[in-house]
Write a structure and sequence with these properties.
Helix content is about 65%, strand content about 5%. It contains 3 helices and 2 strands. Strands 1-2 form a two-stranded antiparallel sheet. A hairpin with a 4-residue loop joins β1 and β2. α2 crosses α3.
Length: about 90
Amino acid sequence: LYGHFLQNPILYVLLFPANIWLLEIVQGTAIHWIYGRNVAWCYADYADELFGGLIRLGHAIWWWGLGAALWLFYPGIYMASLRVAHLATNR
């Protein structure tokens, strides 16, 4: 869905950290709601944390790298998985 709306590779990569941070906020909130605290991760000890330790700004460099890798390789991975699924269902 993210890639559907962002066809420009520069915007895709630059905004990719926001996509991950939104996911961390949603998942962290859900985990906190279920367990009473986030049992999966906590960035509260870092100076660049936000939202009560749910996200860390310093990880942006890694998210940009992941965004670039996904922009390059996801279409091929997607097509390969479709071929495998097609082969598995047409035996």
